[in-house]
TrEMBL record, chain A:
This is Cell division ATP-binding protein FtsE. It is a peripheral membrane protein. It is found in: Cell membrane. One of its GO terms (molecular function) is transmembrane transporter activity. The lineage of its organism: Bacteria, Bacillati, Actinomycetota, Actinomycetes, Streptosporangiales. Residues 2-228 form the ABC transporter domain.
UniProtKB/TrEMBL annotation, chain B:
Forms a membrane-associated complex with FtsE. One of its GO terms (cellular component) is plasma membrane. Part of the ABC transporter FtsEX involved in cellular division. Belongs to the ABC-4 integral membrane protein family. FtsX subfamily. The chain crosses the membrane at residues 21-41, 178-199, 220-253, 273-295. This is Cell division protein FtsX. It comes from Nonomuraea endophytica. NCBIfam families: FtsX_actino.
Length: 229, 301
C-alpha cells in the first residue's frame, strides 16, 4: 500500500537530510506507529505520502501509484484515497459537526443525496451521535478530534494518516480516540500514526517504525515505544 | 461540480473584503470607461476623417484688381492667365479635379457662410470676392507638390490647403484619444494590482478552508474557482458601471459635438455598443488573469 525505496529528502537551506535513505513497506490493512523524537522525520514521511513534498532521491509508491510519475493534475485524486488527522484538529470554526464532515465531500463534488446518507453514518462510527449540530467550540478536544477523524474517513480512504492525533488530548480521552482509529483500521483501512505517546504504543501492540535523525533505527511488528524510554 | 457551493463561497469572499471589492469595481469602472472613451474618440475621428477628407481641397486664390496681396503686385489676373493656370493645375500629378469659382459664385458662398452676420454680408460686394480654383486631389495627404508648383505663379494671390485647417482639429482629437488611452492603461494596471491584492486577502482569509480542501483532494479548479469568480464578478460589475458612464458620455459629449460638426459624422449607438462589449471583455479578461496570477503565488495547490 505504501512503499518507500531508498528515499532521501533534504529541505532547501538545510544540510542535514530530514529523511536519509529510508526504505519501508506498509501492507494493506496494516496499523503502523511511527515513533521518534521531534525532528526525526515523522512528519516529512507523512508529507511525502501525500505528495506535499517531493523526495530528492528514491521512489515512493502509494496505492500502486509511482508518485514521481503522478502529474500535479492527479494529486487531488491521490489525496481522496488518503485521510488525514492532525494534532490541531483543523476544523472549520463556523461550521457545525455535520457541515465539517460534509465539507470534505462537497468539495470533491459528491452529490447531496450521497452526503446526507454517508455523513450521519460516519458521525455515529466515531461516537458523536446526537452531536451533529454542535459547533466545534462547544465540543471537548477529544470530541473535536473525533470530528476530524470522521471527516478524514467519510470518503472511505484506503489509507489514514494521523500526525500525533492524541498530542492535545489527555490520556483518558486518548484511549477513546485510539479505539476509533482501531475501528477504522478494522474496516481494512491502512493506518499510519506518528506519535510521542509511549503508553498508547505499548498498549496497542502494533507494528512500530522508529526514526532517528531521518534514519529507520527499528522496525518491529507488535512492538513497544522503546526500551530506552 | 456544485454550483451553489461555489457561489456561496464567492459571496462570502466578496462580503468579507467589501471595501477592497468596491475599490476594484471603481478602478475597473473608471479604467474601462477611459478605455471606452478612447475607443469612441478613435471611431469618431475615423468617421470624421473619411467624411472631411473627401471634401478637403486646395484653394488657389487669384489676384483681383487692386489686390493687397504682395504676390499680385497690384495687378489682377487676366482671363488668359486664368486659362493657362487651369491648364497647368490639371497637368500636376495627383490632381483629380479643378473647379473655377468666379466672383459671383464666391459671393454666394460668402453669403451662405456668413449668413448670421448680416452687417458683413451687406458691406461686401461681389467685386470684393477673389476668384479661385478649387483643386481636388486623389490623395489629400499628398498636397505638397501642388502647393509648391502654384505658389508664386503670376496671377496667384495665395494657396490655402484646407487640410492644414482641419488638421489642427484632428491633432487635438488625437491628443485627447491618446490621453484617454494612457489614463486607461494606468488604471487597468492599478485595477490588476488591486484585484491581485483582493484575491490575496481572500486567500489568506480562507486559508483554513483551502487547506482542508487540498487535504481531502478537492481539484485545483474547485479550490481556485471561487477566487477567480470573485474577480470576474468585480470585473463585470465594474464593466456595467463603465457602460453607464460610456452611455452618459455618448449622450452628453458626443451628441453635443455632432451638433457642431454635422449629423453625418455622429457616433452611432451601434459603435457605442461594440465599444461597451469590447471594454467588458477586456475588463473581465484582466480580472481573470490577475486572479490566476495571484493564485499561483499565494494559493499553493
Amino acid at each position: 500500500m505504501i512503499h518507500f525505496d531508498n528515499v532521501t529528502k533534504v529541505y532547501a537551506n538545510q544540510n542535514r537530510p530530514a529523511l536519509d535513505h529510508v526504505s519501508v513497506d506498509v501492507d494493506k490493512g496494516e496499523f503502523v506507529f511511527l515513533v521518534g523524537p521531534s525532528g526525526s522525520g515523522k512528519s516529512t514521511f507523512l508529507r511525502l505520502i501525500l505528495k506535499e513534498e517531493r523526495p530528492n532521491s528514491g521512489a515512493i509508491h502509494v496505492a500502486g501509484k509511482d508518485l514521481a510519475r503522478l502529474s500535479n493534475f492527479k494529486v487531488p485524486h491521490l489525496r481522496r484515497r488518503i485521510g488525514c488527522v492532525f494534532q490541531d484538529f483543523r476544523l472549520l470554526p463556523n461550521k457545525n459537526v455535520y457541515e465539517n464532515v460534509a465539507f470534505a465531500l462537497e468539495v470533491i463534488g459528491k452529490p447531496r443525496r450521497f452526503i446526507r446518507k454517508v455523513v450521519p453514518e460516519v458521525i455515529e462510527l466515531v461516537g458523536l451521535e446526537g452531536k451533529a449540530h454542535r459547533m466545534p467550540d462547544e465540543l471537548s478536544g477529544g470530541e473535536q478530534q473525533r470530528v476530524a477523524m470522521a471527516r478524514a474517513f467519510v470518503n472511505r480512504p484506503m489509507i489514514l494518516l494521523a500526525d500525533e492525533p492524541t498530542g492535545n488530548i489527555d490520556p483518558a480521552t486518548s484511549i477513546g480516540i485510539m479505539k476509533v482509529l482501531d475501528r477504522i483500521n478494522r474496516t481494512g483501512t491502512t493506518v499510519v500514526m506518528a506519535t510521542h505517546d509511549a503508553a498508547i504504543v505499548d498498549s496497542m501492540r502494533k507494528r512500530v517504525v522508529e526514526l532517528e535523525d531521518g534514519k529507520i533505527v527499528r522496525d518491529q511488528s507488535r512492538g513497544v515505544y522503546g526500551q530506552a524510554y | 461540480m456544485r454550483a451553489n457551493f461555489i457561489f456561496s463561497e464567492v459571496w462570502i469572499g466578496l462580503r468579507r473584503n467589501l471595501t477592497m471589492t468596491i475599490a476594484v469595481i471603481i478602478t475597473v469602472a473608471v479604467g474601462m470607461a477611459m478605455l471606452g472613451v478612447g475607443l469612441m474618440i478613435n471611431t469618431q475621428v475615423g468617421m470624421m476623417k473619411t467624411f472631411w477628407y473627401d471634401k478637403v481641397e486646395i484653394s488657389v486664390f487669384l489676384c483681383s484688381k487692386d489686390s493687397a496681396m504682395p504676390a499680385c503686385k497690384g495687378k489682377g489676373a487676366t482671363p488668359a492667365q486664368v486659362e493657362t493656370l487651369k491648364g497647368e493645375i490639371q497637368g500636376i500629378q495627383g490632381v483629380k479635379d479643378v473647379i473655377f469659382e468666379n466672383q459671383t459664385e464666391a459671393y454666394k458662398n460668402f453669403q451662405q457662410s456668413f449668413g448670421s452676420n448680416q452687417a458683413l454680408v451687406q458691406a461686401a460686394r461681389a467685386e470684393d470676392m477673389p476668384e479661385s480654383f478649387r483643386v481636388k486631389l486623389h490623395d489629400p495627404d499628398n498636397y505638397q507638390p501642388v502647393i509648391q508648383a502654384l505658389t508664386g505663379k503670376t496671377g496667384v494671390a495665395q494657396v490655402i490647403n484646407h487640410k492644414d485647417l482641419i488638421g489642427k482639429f484632428f491633432e487635438m482629437l488625437d491628443t485627447l484619444r491618446w490621453a484617454a488611452v494612457i489614463v486607461a492603461i494606468v488604471l487597468v494596471l492599478a485595477a490588476a494590482l488591486l484585484i491581485g491584492n483582493t484575491v490575496r486577502l481572500s486567500a489568506y482569509n480562507r486559508r483554513r478552508e483551502t487547506g482542508i480542501m487540498r487535504l481531502v483532494g478537492a481539484s485545483n479548479l474547485y479550490i481556485q474557482l471561487p477566487f477567480v469568480m470573485e474577480g470576474v464578478i468585480a470585473g463585470l460589475v465594474g464593466g456595467v458601471v463603465a457602460a453607464v458612464m460610456l452611455i452618459v458620455t455618448k449622450v452628453f459629449i458626443f451628441e453635443a459635438l455632432s451638433k457642431y460638426l454635422g449629423t453625418s459624422t455622429a457616433l452611432g449607438w451601434d459603435s457605442v455598443a461594440s465599444v461597451i462589449s469590447a471594454t467588458m471583455v477586456i475588463g473581465v479578461f484582466i480580472c481573470v488573469l490577475a486572479s490566476f496570477v495571484t493564485l499561483r503565488r499565494y494559493l499553493r495547490v
